Amino acid sequence: MTDLSALPPTSAGAGCDERPVLRERGQREVFCGLTAIVWLHRKMQDAFFLVVGSRTCAHLLQSAAGVMIFAEPRFGTAILGDRDLAGLADANDELDRLCVSLLERRPDVSTLFLVGSCPSEVIKLDLAKAAERLNAQLRPRVRVVNFSGSGIETTFTQGEDNALKCLVPEMPASNERQLLVVGGLADVIEDQFVRVFDALGIGPVNFLPARRAGTLPAVGPGTVMLPAQPFVGDTVRMLQDRGAQLLSAPYPLGAEGTTEWFRAAAKAWGVSPERFDEVTAPLIARAKAGIERHRARLEGKSLFMLPDSQLEIPLARFLQREAGMNLLEIGTPYLDRRMISTELAWLPASTVVSEGQDVERQLDRLRTAQPDLTVCGLGLANPLEAEGFATKWSIELVFTPIQGYDQAGDLAELFARPLERRARLAA
Predict the structure, then answer these.
(1) Residue 115: pLDDT above 50?
(2) What angle do CA 404, 398, 80 make, to 5 degrees?
(3) pLDDT (0 to 100) of residue 70
(4) Euclidean distance between CA atoms 239 and 171, whole angstroms
(5) pLDDT digits (tens, 9 = 90+) for 189-246
(6) Domain count, the chain
(7) Residue 345 lies in domain
(8) Are the CB atoms for 305 and 312 separated by under 8 Å?
(9) How many CB atoms lie within 10 A of CB 107?
(10) The pLDDT value given to residue 13
(11) What residues contact residue 115 under an 8 Å CB cut-off, 6+ apart?
(12) Residue at a domain's end among 121, 154, 187
């Protein structure tokens, strides 16, 4: 682990991208990539996610998604039993039979995702071969693809990156000029973004993931990519391999981040500064008004973020620059500089940025720092609350619509709420 005291001094105006990052490798507290299915199955309305895993995998998805016993969600678990694990049954035959039965029952499904888990990967069950066998049998009515949702080496948001990666080879080729927004967004936010793009004269605009997995957008040299999430780096690289161009921009969080995100697209499309200001000025004013309602609770408060989702650095930028919070340490499970360079440069030079996790050491620094607010995973929140720390569940920031102008006030409120609760309890 890097010794903080050994870090070289930086100039007062330097950004965090100009200095070493504290890298830690040790015990981690994260959900696995299967968690991404919770929001992906809601986004892609004609897709089904079949996890090949254990009962623990099934319980995770059931509890995380809050699905009632009588509901028929578009995900499920093909549970590996003792006979599968002991090699007494042919897991491949069983999987093929189950998939065919599932698709007969759900004729609305056009894309079937076979999702690997820790158990299926431990017993070396080849889901890529399974997808090939099923495609030979089921295409063109159903497309079968596979990705890994295992938590052995990844954090939970990388489940989306893995899912989108397996779709890139399936995307048709096109030289048409288009804007491709990469990373899952709630439908209401997607609709808001389309209205702004239309007002600016930017288009056509497509999204990955699309609302229907069976109708993938095209990609080629005319495609300009604008990432909406920082955790889709591998997908972006695969799209670049197919000729797409990457726009560098902050992420659409808060008034400032959203404006600069749209500005990157506007510059690529030659939109005049006057037209850009005309379209965005009322939206910026509304976003700032929403943030201002919560700024008094956040301003001057200290923040410590433990690594969980890869959203930490964009969120920290928003909280420092637009809500006036004091950043102590911002941890992220994986630092992809290509995806985060603009955000990283906007953080104050005094902020410690850490990559990876060694839970005990980070908790020691947290206790020394005594922040006003700690953002962390569910597994750490209750113990820290018992120690007297105000906490915010980081996973809520993934499940909640927070991008864009209209959500800027809601985003600020998510962080103000635990401070407000703590103040009321202390009164």
Answers:
(1) yes
(2) 145
(3) 61
(4) 10
(5) 999 999 999 999 999 999 999 999 888 999 999 999 999 999 999 999 999 999 999 9
(6) 3
(7) 4-29+291-426
(8) yes
(9) 9
(10) 36
(11) 34, 37, 49, 50, 51, 52, 53, 127, 146, 147, 148, 149
(12) 154
